[in-house]
Amino acid sequence: MNTFNDSDRYTPEMLAAMHDAAKRQAAELRAQAISDFWDRIGDALATRQWQARRAAERFARSLARHARRRAAAAPAKPSQACC
Hints:
This protein has one helix at residues 12-73. The protein is rod-shaped and about 110 Å long. 75% of the residues lie in helices and 0% in strands. By secondary structure, it is mostly helical.
């Protein structure tokens, strides 16, 4: 005997209603999973963007500091006399 054969307990209308309810629930769960996925991706991208911006700002400050030190340590250029 097939254990999945519940024809004696459920009418075709009941089975159709359960099938429709299962499809609705699956659609709702799928929509929620997709929404959760994109929310997490958005959060991760925002974090990465913040980290990249912070790294770029630190690098720019480092370059500026290095340029100031080089300018302070460089000997003055002699002016060239025009002939």
